[in-house]
Amino acid sequence: MAVTVTPKTILALVVVAVTVSTVSSQRGPGRMTGQVIAAGAGRANVAVQLVDQTSTIVDIAFTDASGRFLLTRVPSENPGGLFLTVEEDGFLPVRERLNLRQLTGLHTIYLVPQPDSDGAAPEGGLLVDVSALAAPIPEDAREEYARAVDDVERGRTDDAVERLERLVESVPEYHDAWITLGVQYLDGGRFDDAEGAFEAARQANPGGALAPLNLGILRYQRAENLQDSGNADAALLAFDGSRVLLEDAVRLDPASTRAVSYLGMALYRIGAYDAAESRLVQALGMPSPGTNVRLMLINVHVRQNRLQAALDQAAAFLEENPDAPERGAIEDVQRQILAALGQ
Fold first, then answer.
1. Do 246 and 213 contact (CB within 8 A), yes or no?
2. pLDDT digits (tens, 9 = 90+) for 95-150
3. Structural domain count, the chain
């Protein structure tokens, strides 16, 4: 009865998700870029202050949707010292001395959830070992990583891959380098290598959400390919494997729209329709859920034999996306549902 409209651009979406997280390498005199990480993912709308030894504010910036920030008034020197400070509700305060001679690349600030009085993590939070998140990366490795990011932005993909491969061989605990290398492998169609890179990133930082998210999406797409080729049993196992990874990503970063969305789609694929509905509805209430979420909800409601709910979702999709390429398929779904309802 249903026309199943499935996402076929997952790899492109993976690239967008990870490339954003790697940072724009905008540098120069008086400027520095950075990223604020909480539970393994960038945290938006965080105030990052640059202060002097008297706590006077020198500069302030707010993080974007990927947790990135840009300070533009960094003095070339300050004899009394400069500090980066962050005070975010639910997290331990941060005060880090800034080395003015080491402003190349990305400066990462890790937020650690404020524990309750009994030492437990707050509800919905993740109590992490900050030493595991902030594994010491040699400065020369950070500089090499910044050069690799610059290669990517300039379209020198082969140079970036060679540089990143050398980098992770010498510094295997460099999570961000593994993630960026995995993205470049995906761009080049090297899916097995990309999977290996994301697995290595997961080992390098078990508390990070990006690696299981991208692994989950990559394996979801492979499961779709198996299903399209008629290998239903293998596809079901692969979708369930994707579901496990995506559940891990949601646990590590409950605010990730992408993780929640793909988890809902994976749950649909394994026949867990009620759980799929819960996650997909959750994703609709999050920032930028994407059109695939409502499309999948139509299928979920049809499987649940909730035809009016499916019709409502179809109408909402067309209202939100009047020029969508899926419009014809959705209108066919509407006609089939109306016929089934006797209307």
1. yes
2. 887 766 555 556 778 777 765 544 443 333 333 333 334 457 888 888 898 888 88
3. 2
